[in-house]
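Notes, p. 3: input format for complexes.
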Amino acid sequence: MNHSMALHTDKYQINMMYAHWKNDTHNQHTVFEAFFRKMPFGNGYAVFAGLERIIEYMEQLRFTDDDIAYLGEQEEQYDAAFLEELRNFRFNGHIDAVKEGTLVFANEPLVRVEGRVFETQLIETALLNFMNFQTLIATKASRIKRVAKHDILMEFGTRRAQEADASLWGARAAYIAGFHATSNMLAGKRFSIPTKGTHAHAWVQSFTSEHQAFESFAKALPDHVTLLVDTYDTLHSGIPNAIQIAKQLSEKGKKLQGIRLDSGDLAYLSIEARKMLDEAGLYDVRIVASNDLDEYTIADLKEQGARVDSWGVGTQLITAADQPSLGGVYKLVAREINGRLEPTIKISANPEKVTAPGKKDVYRIIHPKKQKAIADYVCLASESDVERKQKLKLFDPLHPYIHKYVDQYEAEKLLKPIYRSGQLVYDRPLLEEIRAYHEQQINLFWPEHLRKKNPEPFHVDYSTKAWQLKRDMIEMYVQEKEKLRLMRQEE
Ligand SMILES: Nc1ncnc2c1ncn2[C@@H]1O[C@H](COP(=O)(O)OP(=O)(O)OP(=O)(O)O)[C@@H](O)[C@H]1O
Ligand SMILES: O=P(O)(O)OC[C@H]1O[C@H](OP(=O)(O)OP(=O)(O)O)[C@H](O)[C@@H]1O
Ligand SMILES: O=C(O)c1cccnc1
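Output follows (491 residues plus adenosine-5'-triphosphate):
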């Protein structure tokens, strides 16, 4: 089976590739950078994810005979020679990217793609699609993790996800951010994520009594019994029945693992459930809660003293319900002109949308003693101040008069080589390693950047050269515009 997703792109990419080919500019060397402009959910950080999927896509990136035939049917009537060019298409460029699980921020390059415009343009759509969705879900999961740091978190979202790919890769993104398990078996098989499951109301409904339903379940899976206790009456039927089953199990040397609450006042019910279980000596039986949970409800429930050990989170997480997309973009920052790589800029009436020109790198600047991140430092890739451990001037690009100098620091280059001349050079970490790395990343930041509400913004600072380049290019553009205006006036 061919898994090529070469056509998983917008038509305008194919049209631009065609137009470049017709103009014989398709081999022009270009550099693109992917980044987002606004922190999702008003969070203080985002959790980068999507790289594994990008690599999977890149490894299969070929136009199949079917793809070529389909392109041949388009109303644009692309030349046959162009289609032949596509048939021979191979990505021969370079990709650098931030590692999955890294805490990332607005306006810093997360993925940098360098190569012929023919190839760099094609991959924009898929790359953003993967990065935007997975980073969004990992960030949402991380917010949930922050309010339930010591509890078990289960991802239950598949039935509500925006189709199969979203549930699969969303489960993986949630696991990176600290969830412990998923209910999605395919995600478990494919990514080795631990899987967990209780049972549905349908199980209880398919028996004449709740007690019989619980008993039959316990008989079948004596080591894995978590009983859903809210089908009829949680306090008067569900929990008492579950307690009886626990006693029957203990006579066989087995243990009831837990009960699940899925409706009603979860604070009140979990407190009452805990009392009833404890009174029966069932101190180890865990209480699982589910029902449209998110970070706000979980935090609220905790504040009310809810006695929940494990949270099943579905819809709100997998659909990132309060912010359904991350606005990551992919912008041309440099192109080759007469054998030299020259910066490019996109001017916009909206100052936030004016791009930062030039091929860039991003370094995480770390306090050497405290081992906490101070700022991210975006500089031109040609600069070597950080590598040479030079004193750095850190300033806010929006308020350049606010600045400080750092001379004692550790620095980590965040963009890692992934592809060189089309070859995968990245040693892909195991998912467990990515998850552990993410936890280390969280520890690298002061709590004020991590809090759910009104987090202190973490600084993403630009080097003087990178900032000056942007100013100069804007100035050049303004002067050019003025010249044109004067010329028009004279005519
Ligand atoms: N004590 C609580 N404080 C705040 N939110 C709660 C509390 N208990 C439950 N919730 C949340 O309130 C919402 C209750 O929604 P809703 O009224 O639709 O559920 P329900 O009627 O209890 O159950 P069902 O899903 O079967 O309709 C859920 O999102 C749930 O997680
Ligand atoms: O609420 P979520 O966070 O999406 O978690 C998954 C939900 O899926 C299941 O029930 P389902 O929603 O299918 O039915 P129910 O609402 O009637 O319980 C489960 O009982 C959870 O409530
Ligand atoms: O295992 C569960 O309890 C479960 C799984 C998916 C959705 N809701 C609940």
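Residues 263-267, 291-293, 297, 300-301, 304 surround adenosine-5'-triphosphate (ligand 1) (CB under 6 Å).
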